[in-house]
């Protein structure tokens, strides 16, 4: 962290990223204090950064790089793990260096000392990288595309403001609250799509006040209510293709499998949807489907069946300009999970929807944020009960519910592993008085002691956003790392 007197180092950042970093530093320092000294790269023109800073520009003074000394050395290479085996989750920006876990360039144990535990920590660089990878794969497959980040996965205001400033993507919201929230984080109506369920009169009234928002009603009732409130509006229609898939084929995460679900209009009622749209002078310009969450490579054949079912309906909508294929792209949660082959995924989309004059929108939540986040915790106790060795953390399942709800684990990882003390097999539990409050069972880790920090990985998606304060244990810091 910069001391107030040392310049803020923004080398390596683009102008929008530098502006976000500077704004954070300015707002963290008292108004009316001395100007903030900032160092930029040669590629980063001060005028462009100042324009992006708007009202905060006058509090910044740009100083030559010499004021900082040499540029920081590149991040250290990952440590070879003992015995040569690399943890399955290790990657260039989440790795052990000098025996300490780093997210990007941040030593997470040191961070925990500064901000306390539990703490959600999210790497903005990883989120941007995930979005870029997805966009590149779609572009390489010849898809005219648009990304709407599904903010239900993580609505951190700092993240949303960062994504907006970096112009990384649009957003998808599912409620009036989320709509107001993304607007307060800088997203204009044109950058927002709305795909909600069980819409009330209040939701419809708010949508009517924002004609630029792309709404995708998911029921005949919502379509009718929207038409009544704003006749003549262009709309999307969320359909249910009757085929879907989710993480490792788990039915709980399949939104459009064999049993009827609450999501979307089934093909047998599309005629009624067209009649409702005609009655209110609305044109259905977007076909939307979201068929499940967390699918990986092994689920692609099922997912392609959903694509086929949706593609077969295109002819029913003469005014279509866009197909929105929803989100649901998953990330590995265990060593056994095979990651999604993004090129294979994008080719499957292109085979159905490229070359038809249609834009393809995608609405990922988890894929952008989940593996960018950690939940930092501290070991409260280690104690054997019968034949089980328990390690109790200062964070419970209420801070990341997906492991318990959906069997998508957040694997516990030592922040500073005591590799020289050997491994133990732990049942890692939380601090909530519920029997299901278990992070991992029979989990092999380097020996733990009270006070050690443990990072729960894959906590960037649906952890903070779904948290509860059950047992009044819900307090946690929120940190966005912008490097
Ligand atoms: C309509 C819609 N779009 C997008 C998403 C994001 O899903 P995911 O985070 O799995 O990508 C969801 C999640 O439930 C959704 O309901």
TrEMBL record:
Listed name of the protein:
Diaminopimelate decarboxylase
> What keywords sit in the KW lines?
Amino-acid biosynthesis, Decarboxylase, Lyase, Lysine biosynthesis, Pyridoxal phosphate
Orn/DAP/Arg decarboxylase 2 N-terminal domain: residues covered: 126-369
Gene3D superfamilies associated with the record: Alanine racemase, Lyase, Ornithine Decarboxylase, Chain A, domain 1
Compositional bias segments (type: Low complexity): 76-87
One Pfam short name = Orn_Arg_deC_N
Q: Is Transmembrane helix one of the keywords? A: no
On the tree of life, the source organism's domain of life is: Bacteria
- What are its cofactors? pyridoxal 5'-phosphate
* UniProt keyword Ribosomal protein present: no
According to the record, the residues making up region (Disordered) are 68-88
């Amino acid at each position: 962290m910069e001391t107030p007197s040392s310049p803020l180092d923004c080398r390596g950042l683009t102008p929008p990223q530098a502006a976000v970093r500077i704004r954070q530093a300015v707002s963290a320092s008292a108004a009316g204090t001395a100007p903030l000294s900032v160092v930029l790269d040669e590629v980063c023109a001060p005028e462009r950064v100042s324009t992006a800073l708007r009202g905060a520009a006058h509090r910044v003074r740009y100083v030559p790089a010499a004021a900082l000394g040499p540029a920081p050395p590149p991040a250290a290479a990952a440590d070879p793990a003992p015995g040569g085996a690399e943890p399955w989750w290790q990657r260039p920006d989440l790795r052990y260096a000098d025996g300490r876990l780093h997210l990007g360039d941040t030593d997470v144990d040191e961070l925990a000392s500064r901000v306390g535990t539990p703490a959600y920590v999210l790497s903005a660089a990883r989120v941007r990288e995930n979005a870029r990878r997805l966009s590149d794969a779609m572009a390489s497959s010849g898809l005219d595309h648009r990304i709407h980040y599904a903010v239900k996965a993580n609505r951190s205001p700092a993240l949303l403001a960062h994504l907006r400033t970096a112009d990384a993507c649009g957003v998808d919201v599912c409620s009036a609250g989320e709509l107001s929230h993304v607007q307060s984080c800088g997203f204009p109506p044109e950058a927002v799509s709305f795909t909600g369920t069980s819409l009330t009169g209040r939701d419809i009234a708010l949508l009517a006040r924002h004609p630029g928002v792309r709404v995708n009603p998911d029921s005949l009732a919502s379509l009718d209510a929207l038409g009544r409130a704003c006749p003549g509006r262009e709309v999307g229609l969320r359909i249910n293709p009757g085929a879907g898939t989710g993480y490792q084929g788990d039915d709980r995460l399949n939104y459009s499998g064999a049993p009827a679900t609450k999501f979307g209009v089934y093909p047998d009622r599309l005629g009624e949807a067209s009649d409702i749209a005609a009655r209110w002078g609305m044109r259905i310009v977007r076909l939307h489907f979201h068929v499940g969450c967390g699918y990986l490579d092994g689920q692609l054949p099922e997912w392609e069946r959903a694509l086929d079912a949706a593609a077969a309906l295109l002819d029913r909508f003469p005014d279509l300009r866009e197909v929105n294929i929803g989100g649901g792209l998953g990330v590995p949660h265990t060593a056994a999970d095979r990651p999604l082959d993004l090129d294979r995924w994008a080719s499957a989309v292109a085979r159905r929807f490229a070359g038809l004059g249609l834009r393809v929108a995608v609405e990922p939540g988890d894929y952008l944020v989940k593996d960018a986040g950690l939940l930092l915790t501290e070991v409260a106790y280690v104690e054997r009960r019968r034949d089980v060795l328990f390690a109790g953390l200062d964070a419970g399942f209420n801070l990341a519910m997906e492991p318990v709800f959906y069997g998508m684990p957040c694997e516990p990882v030592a922040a500073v592993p005591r590799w020289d003390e050997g491994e133990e097999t732990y049942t890692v539990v939380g601090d909530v008085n519920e029997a299901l409050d278990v992070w991992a069972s029979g989990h092999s880790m380097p020996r733990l002691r009270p006070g050690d920090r443990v990072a729960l990985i894959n906590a960037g998606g649906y952890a903070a956003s779904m948290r509860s304060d059950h047992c009044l244990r819900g307090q946690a810091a929120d940190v966005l790392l912008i490097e």
